[in-house]
Amino acid sequence: MQPGQLWYLMALYAVLSVPFLCVSACILAGFFLQPARVAALYGVTMLGSGAGAAGAVGLLYVAHPATIPYALALATATAYLCVASPSVWGRISGWGLVVLATGLLVTGKVQPIRVSEYKGLSYALRYPDAQIAGECASPLSAITVVKSGQIRETPGQISNYPMSQLGTLPEQAGLYFDAGSVSPVHRFDGDLSRFAYLDYVTGAVAYRVAPASPNVAIIGAGGGTEVLSALGHGAIHVSAIEVDPGVLRLLRGPLREFSGRLYERNDVSITIADGRGYLQSHAYQYDLIHIALLDSFTASAAGVNALNENYLYTVEAVSLYLERLTPDGVLAMTCWLKAPPRDSLKLFATLAEAYEKAGPGDPSQRLVYIRSWNTATIVLSKAPLDASRISRVRSFCEDRGFDLCYLPGLVREEANRYVILDEPVHFDFAHAILSPQRENAYRNSLFDLRPATDDCPYFFQFFRWTSLPTLIRGMGTQWALFVEWGYLVLVATLLQGLVISAVLILAPLLVFTRRATPRPARRWVLTYFAGLGLAYMFLEIAFIQRFTLFLSYPVYAVAVVLTAFLVFSGLGSLLAQRVLGRRSSLVALSVCGIVVVVSIYLLALAPAFSAAAGWPDALRIALSVALLAPLAFLMGIPFPSGLQLVTDSFESLLPWAWGVNGCASVVGALLATVVAVHFGFSALTLVAAAIYVVAAFCLARLEQRARGGA
What we know:
This protein has 710 residues and is α/β, with parallel strands linked by helices. It contains 24 helices and 12 strands. The protein has helices spanning 3-33, 38-62, 68-83, 88-107, 120-124, 206-209, 225-232, 245-251, 275-281, 297-302, 315-323, 343-358, 387-400, 425-433, 438-444, 468-475, 485-513, 519-551, 554-578, 583-611, 617-635, 638-649, 654-679, 681-706; strands at 131-137, 142-147, 172-177, 182-186, 215-219, 237-242, 268-272, 286-292, 325-336, 367-371, 375-381, 403-406. Mean pLDDT is 86; it is low at 297-304.
């Protein structure tokens, strides 16, 4: 990192912290102004936060993301107007802010989002003939259409394609998602022969294994590259499954004629849905299910996907795909290659283990694994591969210069022939996975190559701390270029959060309250409110990820879970305001309820999600809210109950309690991800429940101290 970049990072932290600092000060001031109604004030704050979580996502349906800050400014100005001084100046300033924010929002005079010059869209717009041909925004992404004669996007390396045919490659437009990853849209006039080059990429090996004239499902259809490939390989019908509705709007809008109305053909059906969710809710069977290059090459190479939960690549997902195949059907997955190799190795292990768990038979007789210099394709056949299909795969690879990594009957000398590595690591790992030495292969690998599961769906997280000394010895100061940065950034951010929180929150509060309160009270307050911050964020993060699988869209899961948690926690806080008497008894009762509900959910959520997989989105959202409501309601009781006790008996500790909880919440959000990466969401949930139990004990001791006990 350049030294100057560190200052930019610090400045960014400072700018982003200002709104939160101001909001926190306003809430704390309200507590001091109304000390007898702390729980009620906190409950109303939670209700407003829940409305904001739902409203922010709702705004993305009707407004461009660049306008959202102005909508938030309007809400802030309105809040100021409510508490402004009744004097003439107070009213003028309040209404002035409201009018200014409204004017900016309505007239559209907003500052456009500055796109990093290192993103794909920035590169594309530098082409001499580049022009923006369309835009579309939704809660899922902002898509920009760029047309240029210089755009040439292919699904991996085109190997040994006749040079005489290179000039006939079709014109393309690029769909740039959030200015980053790109999906090409091809100019299509109905002539599939112009797409013969799509038979010269590794993914085309699937059509050497699949039945003739297959019925194909493409997960992540995007601009239609794999759909055109399937049609060119004789598919009788292609089910294109695309998660982003903006893609369909663009291909039926400004790109309709350019794309040859691809998604309006009789032999193509387009469905806007998450691929796994769609297959889970429909029992239709296919001859070929193909998942190809859903993560961009740049993102894959940089390792920024390391902390992206991906439920398409888990063992449970592959088991579902196998259920949706015909008896002779095949599953094909294509991924980008990294150096040292890891993605394709983990994918091979996932398919092998999933087949062993899903059905009888030997996976070693059903797998194909090939690679070029930048992509690898792995095919899993539901039926054993016969001699004819094995021969077709061999001929395909020999004609195109692709390396065979695994094929029934393949020997080590036949691997590593074209893109030569020091050792045939792909071949060696594949054979180890299919042998009794599987555990040794996982244990001795430089990276974490164990298959991802629904409980721990971090497919792209490969980093292992035990391998760090080896990486440093072998690569010196350049070792960081060969690991997943997402995980390292998370750990670095966690450390920064701990240090900054201690300096900016805990240190001043310790100094200001040291002489005003007895030490035992400070100890119990610290432990109680820190524990609540950690536990609340642990459960929130865990359930966001669990409901991502059920609701299919991460943005929906975040909005639904945050809204439900905040709103029903707010209602729990309002209940806490009305209950008089021993606060510790109320908290102990709510914690018992949390433990019971969490235990039930760990056992029952997966079957419930499976049973409701085919429900419409509205019903699934309603069920999600209903499931989250009891837990969130109970989680809303401990914090305001403790806060009211502190206000009544140790008022000087009120800022400390608020600051410690805020510190723990920030750290908890980061620590929750670390725990989930290494131990899974079930472990994260159990740890949160245990922290709540400890917190209940701490509040009982604090209340005892307030009543004059030991």
